[in-house]
């Protein structure tokens, strides 16, 4: 499913124009991104949590040369689904 599909479904279900729905969907995505840039947790009850996780620095090995390299710390966006969402997905499978 793409963002356009989401916009189509919401517009059909609500009777709001696709243009207005697209603006709302884009602003929602922008709000989540901005919050994550500030290292804030975005919790949507019954859906899940968007948050940023810090990965510690580590050493790795180049499998081709065997040379050890240092990988710096990183920050990754993650999504953790709620128990409700996990249960709904499990029922649908």
Describe the structure in your own words.
It is built from 3 helices and 5 strands. The chain is 45% helix and 29% strand. The chain folds into 2 domains: 38 residues; 53 residues, HU Protein, Chain A, CATH 4.10.520.10. It has 93 residues and is an alpha+beta fold.
CATH topology of the largest domain: HU Protein, Chain A
Strand content: 25-35%
Topology pattern, helix = H, strand = E: HHEEEEEH
Q: Give the beta-strand count.
A: 5
Compute the number of structural domains: 2
The outline comes out as elongated
Query: Helicity, in percent?
Result: 40-55%
| Radius of gyration computed on alpha carbons | 19 Å
Q: Class of the largest domain, according to the CATH hierarchy?
A: Few Secondary Structures
Biggest sheet features = 3 strands, antiparallel
Our count of helices gives 3
Provide the residue-averaged pLDDT: 95
Give the structural class: alpha+beta
Poorly predicted regions are: none
The CATH architecture of the largest domain would be: Irregular
Give me some keywords for this one.
elongated, 93 residues, HU Protein, Chain A, 45% helix, three-stranded antiparallel sheet
Write the layout of secondary structure elements.
Elements: H1 3-14, H2 18-37, E1 42-44, E2 48-55, E3 58-61, E4 68-71, E5 74-81, H3 83-92
Antiparallel strand pairs: 1-2, 2-5, 3-4
Helix pairs in contact: 1-2
Summarize the structure.
By secondary structure, this protein is α+β, with helices and mostly antiparallel strands.
């Amino acid at each position: 499913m793409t963002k356009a599909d989401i916009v189509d479904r919401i517009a059909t279900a609500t009777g709001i124009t696709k243009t207005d729905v697209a603006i709302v969907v884009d602003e929602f995505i922008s709000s989540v991104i901005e919050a994550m840039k500030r290292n804030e947790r975005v919790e949507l009850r019954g859906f899940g949590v968007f948050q940023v996780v810090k990965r510690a620095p580590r050493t790795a090995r180049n499998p081709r040369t065997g040379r050890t390299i240092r990988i710096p710390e990183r920050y990754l966006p993650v999504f953790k689904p709620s128990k409700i969402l996990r249960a709904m997905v499990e029922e649908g499978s």
